[in-house]
Amino acid sequence: MTDPITDMFNRIKNGEAVHKEAVEVPFSKMKQAILDILQKQRFIGEVKKKGRTDKKTILVDLLYDKEKQGALAGFKRISKPGQRIYRPHQEIKQIRSGYGIAIISTSKGIMNDKDARKNKVGGEVLVEVW
User: Fold this and answer.
1) C-alpha–C-alpha distance, residues 31 and 12, integer Å
2) Are 72 and 12 a contacting pair, CB within 8 Å?
3) pLDDT tens-digit profile of 42-88?
4) Element (H, E) at 58
5) CATH assignment at residue 96
């Protein structure tokens, strides 16, 4: 697997497409931080780490609206393994007129675009989610 973050988002989108209650994602600290941000922004439900030290996974509960549409409508991977995209805090714009978020890896940790602008810190723009 060359891009584990895109794989994680694809698992979530595929799980929503078939109306699963939860999906499992292989564990990493970066994925855990991204999922924590998505949970705070109400794109996904509860996030639970499970498994032993050699086979850790993350169980992600999926959220749906009244029409059984997934809360995570879409995502766009910005910084890819072959081409990293960095932005200073002045160039970080709102996503979908404020309805979406950008997840940014900064020197102060992984945070959403609003927090990065507030803390005046730029970094690698990982993904846009709406």
Assistant:
1) 12
2) yes
3) 999 999 999 887 889 999 999 999 898 999 999 999 999 999 999 99
4) strand 57-61
5) 3.30.1490.10
